[in-house]
Design goal:
homodimer, Arc Repressor Mutant, subunit A, SH3 type barrels, two-stranded antiparallel ribbon, about 40% helix, globular, binds manganese (II) ion, DNA-binding
Chain lengths: ~220, ~220
DNA sequence: AATAAATTTTAGACTAATCTAAAAATAAGT
DNA sequence: ACTTATTTTTAGATTAGTCTAAAATTTATT
């Protein structure tokens, strides 16, 4: 029904939709799919024919509810497989994304259901991302980006908004793991970089680029 | 390096090689890949360019050692995933082949290694097929086809040579599971059908078509 | 409001994998 | 050995996904 490639486009359009209210631009999709704008235009017309997105020339694209359902199923599989890789096979959280990118396209409802059960119906993946339920409902927890937290506010780290190996390894080195207590000490005005206290101990300096990609829960 | 499609061709050529001494014909490959002979010819030329098979027009095809190595890696993955599906997720042996057909193409040495370890380094898949080791060495056990066993010979069922759902469900219904004792009572001359005793109890009648696909160990 | 810049779409071409129909080569049957 | 049948290969076309270069449209700037 939906090809490997189509699923990747839908997943990326979904991701962009969660970051923007307005229509998604062709160029934004091209950047994440690592293709050229011309290729994206072709695919959008195809997905539109299949009723998976609503799209009009030059006006950007949105997922239809059908398209969103497909995207959420793929994301559900991606995250369940990541849990499997970390919890059962002992991978580190920075090693699982690329493998899950492949596993997420395996097509078997029964397999997903049994995998979910085998893992004990986890609510979050190893990066703190929530796992959609079997009906494609994505739980909402209202986490904020660390970059939006005010000075002297204490928070708990609940997730990351990026899965690149270099980013995750950087966090691990600094001691920024899921569940740690963070307190914002000072925010530099000109570049939004910040000094934070991790677990009540050391002071660390982190760039805004890092802070934007850390998800936290306010006490 | 090798595509999904190329891997399927190599796997099928490997399978045919174990059944025949001579070169593999274009038509034989076409039948198993569910494609036309013309498509096979194209692919054989491509695989030959990649040094994965040795092939000359009209003379049939053989795997090179490189090609065999690729095929055995795919088969190793297929069988390990089948063990996972049955042992860890609770699938029946007749439900796992199609899912393993997809999983066998997931590309990650590290994943295969860890999966193997997680499963306790199994030697056989749920159908009794041996699992090649990480170096691509296929263990040999010298099992025979039940169809080649003489009357009054007692044997143990060790595997099946076919994975179709209908065949496996038929076996399960009759009580032919891995490990059962079988004694050949009588072989009908004209159609090679046979009467067998299963587990020392009941007499069963099975066709030569079934007997050919049951692998047994002689006491 | 007119012009320049950026974005997006079209046109035309390429690769991988497939097909059908026709041609070539091999194998079989007299 | 000659003819026929079967198998295999070539020729030409198709579909999915991609690209570059050029044209069209939208957005930004004077
Ligand atoms: Mn991921
Ligand atoms: Mn994740
Ligand atoms: Mn199988
Ligand atoms: Mn098997």
């Amino acid at each position: 029904m939906t090809s490997f490639t189509e699923e990747n486009y839908l997943k990326i359009i979904y991701k962009l939709s969660t970051e923007t209210e307005s229509e998604i631009s062709t160029n934004a999709v091209a950047e994440l799919t690592q293709t050229k704008a011309a290729s994206v235009t072709d695919m959008l017309r195809k997905l539109s024919d299949k009723q998976l997105v609503s799209y009009q020339k030059y006006q950007g694209v949105r997922l239809t509810s059908q398209g969103q359902a497909v995207a959420l199923k793929v994301i559900r599989k991606h995250r369940l497989w990541e849990v499997f890789l970390v919890e059962k096979l002992g991978f580190n959280w920075d090693e699982v994304h690329d493998i899950a990118e492949q596993l997420e396209h395996i097509d078997s409802e029964e397999l997903v259901q049994r995998l979910d059960e085998f893992l004990g119906f986890p609510q979050f993946d190893p990066h703190g991302d929530p796992i959609p339920d079997r009906h494609g409902k994505m739980p909402e927890f209202g986490y904020k980006n660390l970059s939006d937290i005010d000075p002297n506010q204490a928070v708990i780290m609940m997730g990351v908004a990026q899965h690149s190996v270099s980013f995750l390894q950087h966090l691990a080195k600094v001691g920024l793991n899921l569940g740690v207590d963070i307190c914002v000490k000072e925010i530099n005005d000109f570049d939004k970089s910040m000094t934070i206290k991790i677990g009540g101990e050391i002071d660390y300096f982190i760039s805004n680029d890092v802070a934007k990609n850390i998800l936290v829960k306010v006490y």
